[in-house]
Specification:
By secondary structure, the chain is α+β, with helices and mostly antiparallel strands. It has a single domain, classed as 2-Layer Sandwich (Alpha-Beta Plaits), CATH 3.30.70. 37% of the residues lie in helices and 32% in strands. Strands 2-3-1-4 form a four-stranded antiparallel β-sheet. The relative contact order is 0.31.
Length: 99
Amino acid sequence: MIRHIVLFKMKPFSDAASRLSKLSEIKVALEDLTQKVPELLRAEAGINMNPAEDYDLSLTCDVNSMDDLEVYANHPDHVAVKHIIREVLEARACVDYEV
């Protein structure tokens, strides 16, 4: 099994309410992908509550193989969520490892 972990740092928002609203939208959209992408076994997104840290959102996913990760990455529903994220994304970090 492959665990896919992504950290997202967003561009600054005009206010805290806008930030939380957009992060919540992204969180729900990412977690809903388990219903749309058969290769995606688990997806959990978390909004960072620690203001001392640089990254705003984390994503942890499980798939059976690197091939399944590739299918997930290119799935049209995942690509649609990536477009939402890219509108507000400043930086991204990713690690994929075998569990």
